[in-house]
């Protein structure tokens, strides 16, 4: 069963990715599905960022204080400036300084 789910997920992922390059751009998703799809990029990016900041080894939560400081500063810059570039620069510069 797990192989079926993995293959099905891979095929769906491939279909979405190839559709960007195949010229099939006039396909409109149903409103009920489109309502949820807009949250996918934000949730995926949040999961990637959270997993790079904090990990769990089965008994305790592990984290790197320098990364948490840089992420916190980047969040503050993002809230103040609303600029992706400024947020990236602030986070990277903080990592390089620490």
Describe the protein.
The protein has 98 residues and is mainly α. The protein has 5 helices and 2 strands. Strands 1-2 form a two-stranded antiparallel ribbon. A hairpin with a 4-residue loop joins strand 1 and strand 2 (61-63). Helix 4 (65-81) runs antiparallel to helix 5. It is extended. The model has no long low-confidence stretch (mean pLDDT 86).
Which descriptors apply to this entry?
98 residues, 2 strands
Gyration radius, rounded: 19 Å
Number of strands: 2
The strand order across the widest sheet is 1-2
- The overall average pLDDT, rounded, is 86
Following the backbone from N to C, one meets helices and strands in this order, namely: HHHEEHH
Number of helical segments? 5
Poorly predicted runs are none
Q: Structural class from helices and strands? A: mainly alpha
- Amino-to-carboxy terminus distance: 47 Å
Helix content: over 70%
Shape: extended
Major sheet description? 2 strands, antiparallel
Percent in strands: 5-15%
Fold blueprint:
Layout: H1 2-21, H2 31-37, H3 40-53, E1 54-56, E2 61-63, H4 65-81, H5 84-97
Antiparallel strand pairs: 1-2
Helix pairs in contact: 4-5
Task: Kindly summarize this structure in a few lines.
By secondary structure, the protein is mostly helical. It is built from five helices and two strands, in the order H-H-H-E-E-H-H.
């Amino acid at each position: 069963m797990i192989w079926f789910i993995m293959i099905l997920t891979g095929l769906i992922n491939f279909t979405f990715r190839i559709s960007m390059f195949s010229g099939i751009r006039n396909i409109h998703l149903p409103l009920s599905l489109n309502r949820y799809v807009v949250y996918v990029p934000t949730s995926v990016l949040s999961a990637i960022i959270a997993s790079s900041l904090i990990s769990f080894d089965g008994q305790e939560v592990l984290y790197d204080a320098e990364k948490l400081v840089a992420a916190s500063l980047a969040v503050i810059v993002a809230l103040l400036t609303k600029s992706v570039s400024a947020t990236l620069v602030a986070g990277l510069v903080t990592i390089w300084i620490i």
